[in-house]
Each structure stands twice: as structure tokens, then as C-alpha cells.
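step=encode ok
step=design start
structure_in=
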């Protein structure tokens, strides 16, 4: 059986979402049989997405909307994935919020619907500076995705 790949893509200017991404990476990396790759949104590309069996996207809500770094990433990978016929990619979201995050989530889910991706977990909203509980929740989410990949659930 080939090793499954979980791609964690994050955007962070303050360091908050990077903390969440690192917690997710550390937890998911413990799962045998799953290769976990973490990339900043600015560095991630369509090759990363084509190799991935699932995506965990972590980023802030900016002014109630998708952060520019996340939007740029999605703009760059959308058409290459479409041309390659990459559909039904499992994904989950972690949104660092100053507002309620709902509009950002709605916008991201709409983009992923256009990619024919499938949401596999409810969005995790983190308000303000990530505390121990938020970091643990993010780690648990990533660990669950990695375990699901390893078991063939996703």
C-alpha cells in the first residue's frame, strides 16, 4: 500500500496561524503510513495539491473575508487541478478569527465546491491568540485526518 499524503497549507502574518499549523503538523506526523507536508500558502503550488490525498487549510479571516495569501494560493492551484481532473479532494479548514469567521468559511467552501472537493470535518474557528485548547483542537483535527487517510476512510 502506498503512503498517503496530507498537505497542510497555512497563511500567517502574526504567527498565530503558524502556531496552529505547527501543532497540526506535529500531531499528524505521528501517524504511520501518512506523509505530512506543510507549506506556507505563498510557497505551496499545484504540484503539492496534485500529490496530496487530503488538505488542511489554515488561515486568518481578514475583514470578514478570505485572507489574501490564501486567496492567492487558491487562485494559483484552481485551474491546474481542474485541468488534471483532481476532484473529490478531502479538505478541512481552520480559520483564525477576529470576527465570527462565517463569511470566510462560506467563501472557502464555495471555492472548494468549484474544485469538487469534499469537506471532511466541520471548520475549526480559533478566536484571537491560540491558547492550549485551540492548539490541542487543531492537533486533534489533523491527527484525525491523518488516521482517516491511513485507514482509507478518505
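sequence_out=
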Amino acid at each position: 500500500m502506498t503512503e498517503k499524503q496530507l498537505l497542510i497549507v497555512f497563511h500567517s502574518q502574526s504567527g498565530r496561524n503558524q502556531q496552529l499549523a505547527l501543532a497540526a503538523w506535529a500531531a499528524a506526523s505521528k501517524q504511520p503510513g501518512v506523509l505530512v507536508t506543510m507549506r506556507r500558502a505563498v510557497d505551496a503550488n499545484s504540484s503539492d495539491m496534485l500529490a496530496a490525498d487530503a488538505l488542511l487549510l489554515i488561515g486568518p479571516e481578514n475583514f470578514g473575508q478570505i485572507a489574501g495569501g490564501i486567496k492567492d494560493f487558491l487562485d494559483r492551484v484552481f485551474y491546474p487541478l481542474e485541468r488534471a481532473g483532481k476532484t473529490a479532494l478531502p479538505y478541512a479548514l481552520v480559520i483564525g478569527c477576529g470576527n465570527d469567521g462565517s463569511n470566510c468559511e462560506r467563501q472557502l467552501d464555495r471555492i472548494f465546491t468549484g474544485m469538487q472537493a469534499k469537506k471532511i470535518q466541520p471548520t475549526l474557528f480559533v478566536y484571537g491568540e491560540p491558547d492550549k485548547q485551540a492548539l490541542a483542537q487543531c492537533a486533534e483535527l489533523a491527527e484525525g485526518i491523518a488516521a482517516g487517510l491511513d485507514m482509507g476512510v478518505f
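step=design ok
step=annotate ok -> Residues 148 and 154 are 6 Å apart (CA to CA).
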